[in-house]
Amino acid sequence: MNESIYRRMKDLPSTHLLGAGTAACSGCGGLQAIHEIYDVFGNKTVFINAAGCMTLLTVYPFTPFSGSWLYTAMGSAPAGAQGVRDALDILLEKKRISKEEDLATIVLTGDGSAYGMGVSATSGAIDRQLDFLYICYDNEGYGNTGQQYSGATPHYAQTATSKAGYTGFKKDLFSLWVANQPAYVATVIGTEPLDLARKIEKAKQIKGPRLILALAPCPTGWGFDPKLSSEIGKLAVKTGIWPLKEYIDGKIVHSKIPKGRLPVEEYLNKQDRFSHLFKPDKQLQHINNIQQQVDHYWDAVAYG
Ligand SMILES: Cc1ncc(C[n+]2csc(CCOP(=O)(O)OP(=O)(O)O)c2C)c(N)n1
Ligand code: SF4
Ligand SMILES: [Mg+2]
User: Which atom of ligand 2 is least distant from the CA of 12?
Assistant: First the structure.
């Protein structure tokens, strides 16, 4: 496994700056998606951020955002969002702020919180029909602490805690949310900015619990050169590994159906976390298993 997976954030070059005192790794796909989302949402926002890589964007008392930022424990961001929303509603009711001064309540977490530690708080927030947007940047592991596996880690991926390849399977967070009948759910990726912007514009107009789930190509955790970040993101869509879709009004619609899907191998063989599938010998059966899972997904989409 490539050494880069074990590199600590403090050792990384602070080349991707959003503002004074803020840094993430070069080529960070999560930061790219958040940047694009923020461009659409603007500064009338309160971000409620659970511990993870993006927490490092903020160095108290500064953040790179011109809106507000609240930091919470990993499992509690949706509970924090409830407090923020309630406070804003009380201020509105007491006419201490006008409707124009109201702020959007936005939870921002990694997959470790969204697929695992925060699921209970998320479920409660959806049950209460909390008016909030949940943004999950999914780098498929506990990135900030050295890329241990999470509920989002894909089958066979090497992580710091699955050195021979992850034996579990990536949870389907999209379906988990849909089962709770929220107002809106969408998958996005920073390398499809138009698709992303359209979905954020839509999410902005809707009230209630909403999820934006962004695949976040992660050079440090996945083991690839930062300059390949955009290519890896595009391959995730072109191979069909990351379906772009949305759920609204009880229906699931795919916003992009990849025509002439590329073999999954083209996505896998560029990342050190899957290198054991190619070296020293090619593990055809494992690669075929991944291909079959992806084919099965798209067959089900085609035949309803
Ligand atoms: C309850 C708890 N356990 C462990 C930690 C240590 N910790 C801080 S960030 C982090 C990783 C979070 O992973 P994820 O949510 O996927 O975000 P990423 O780091 O990948 O951005 C962990 C385990 C913590 N802050 N709280
Ligand atoms: S570890 Fe990955 S998700 Fe975290 S800042 Fe670096 S590239 Fe981004
Ligand atoms: Mg993560």
Answer: 6
